[in-house]
Amino acid sequence: MAGHSTTHVDTGSAWGGKVSPFNVSYGKMMMWFFLVSDALTFGGLLISYGFVRHTTEGAWPIGEETFEALPFLGHGYPLAYVALMTFILIVSSVTMVLAVEAGHRMDKKGVVKWMLATIIGGFFFVGSQAWEWSHFMHGTDWGSVELADGSRAIVKGHFGEFESFTVVEAGKHHKKGEVIKESSDELYHHFREAVLAGHVKDGKMMLHDGSIVTWKRQADHEVKLIVKTDGNGVALKKRTVIEGKDAEKKYWEAVNSGEKGRLVYGANLLSLSEPNEYGPTQYAQLFFFITGFHGFHVFSGVVINILIFLGVVKGTYHKRGHYEMVEKTGLYWHFVDLVWVFVFTFFYLV
Amino acid sequence: MERDDIYEYSLDTHHSEEVGKKIRRKIWVVTAILTVITGIEVAIGGMVHQDNPYWYIVKWLFIGLTLLKAGYIVLTFMHLGDERKVLRYVILVPYFIFIIYLIFIALTEGNAVHSTWTNYGG
After folding, report:
1. DSSP state of B70
2. How far apart are CA A9 and CA A2, in angstroms?
3. Which residues in chain B are closer than 8 Å to A27, comparing Cβ atoms?
4. Contact call for B24 and A101, based on CB within 8 A
5. Chain B within 8 Å of A80 (Cβ-Cβ)?
6. A176 with A100, same domain?
């Protein structure tokens, strides 16, 4: 068994096989080698993101325009949510390194405490990513819109809430003249279904049961159309922004056209070859692949942390005389944080 | 079976309470730095739009801050700064050589594809 004096590396025999020239255990070195290979995978993914982005230039979505929603609070908070996610992951990385430090002092209680905090932080991160995904798939109330000249615009602003529908032509379930009062979310849901099916025309829409209704809703506010691509889907040299009444008019003109496909909502999972709400097709694909692959790492990291945590509680590592297993799983956990720092920058910031 | 022909490096990493105190202080300082950097990034990201003529400065600032954050995480949280120099370089040098090459080749190619599509149609 080695103490400090015996691990001194004699440079003459360093490569002779008896001592590690790296002065680390086999397991730790292999963890590092694994992390290097995993970092190359993530590097490759992010670089392929850069490649695709450079092929589309101005048409590519911008982080602060795409990610500006918070749970319960709605829209208008650019990057706030993802900043929160980043903070959660950084904090859980800190608690992990504190667990490692406690392990170096053979402080079992400290390791238990900090590892538990790390696991909780990991669950919080996975949970917030689930919300982020669901929001990304669902899209905004507006969707993106194909204007009369064939160009496509993303839409910003406050979407006026639906108050009620009035039946003008009877269907299976509704009589003529009936006023349908449901929550604004439910009414909006019917509206989106009708838009996607091409059942909205000239201020009237057909519901599932075949009845035709008009709607009453509150006014829209601060509507803004941001046009990034021309009629052929090619990026404009400079994006154009249409605001105010003109924007409202153009948007609702497209809604009331009765044509399918003028509006696209969210990640458009129905057809991968069609555009998504945010921009080029590849955007949503890369989003799901990269954040998904990272999320999978977080999830597996949480599982590994739980296994090691159980070992700590049982006292396995204390008996062994060192907490290197905590250190190794810690390396993996920090790596997950490290990758997120880069995903945060290249997916959300620039 | 106990082997005496290899060194048990794992046993060699213990430290005392005093050293631990210093390490913990360093951890909290790095935590504060990482949080502040993230806050700055989000604030600038929300304020400066990509249409801004100075956007490219902000972009490089973001990339610089990211590398700074990554440096703190790798060197302090992952303790690579405390490892032997040779291990540090075995990990970092091949990675950076390959990644820099890949960035160069992929972005150059991306720009070329873009100009092909613009000039000759997609």
Report:
1. H
2. 12
3. 10
4. yes
5. yes
6. no
Q: In whole angstroms, what separates CA B52 from the centre of its chain? A: 27
Nearest to B114 among A55, A62, A102 (CB): A55
Q: What is the ipTM of this complex?
A: 0.90
How distant is the Cα of A3 from the closest Cα of chain B, in angstroms? 6
Distance in angstroms (rounded) separating the CA atoms of residues A137 and A53: 20
Structure tokens at A291: 């954040």
Q: Are residues A171 and A249 in the same domain?
A: yes
CATH number at residue A325: 1.20.120.80
Last residue of a domain, one of A202, A234, A266: A266
Read off the pTM: 0.87
Q: Are residues A166 and A67 located together in one domain of the fold?
A: no
Q: How far apart are CA A178 and CA A182, in angstroms?
A: 13
Residues 6+ apart with CB under 8 A from A110: A98, A99, A101, A102, A103
A83 and B74 within 8 Å at the Cβ level: the answer is no
Type of residue found at A38 = D
Tens of pLDDT, residues A73-96:
777 777 888 888 999 999 999 999
Q: Which of A22, A319, A323 to mutate to test the interface with B (most CBs of B within 10 A)?
A: A22
Q: How many residues does chain B have?
A: 122
What b-and-e string marks burial along A50-89, b requiring 16 or more CB atoms within 10 Å of the CB? bbbbbbbbbbbbbbbbbbbbeeeeeeebbbebbbbbbbbb
Q: Is A145 helix (H, G, I), strand (E, B) or coil?
A: strand
- Gap between the Cα atoms of A74 and A184, Å rounded: 15
Among candidate residues B41, B118, B28, the one with its CA nearest the CA of residue B77: B28
Taking only the tens place, the pLDDT of each residue in A251-269 is 998 888 888 888 888 887 7
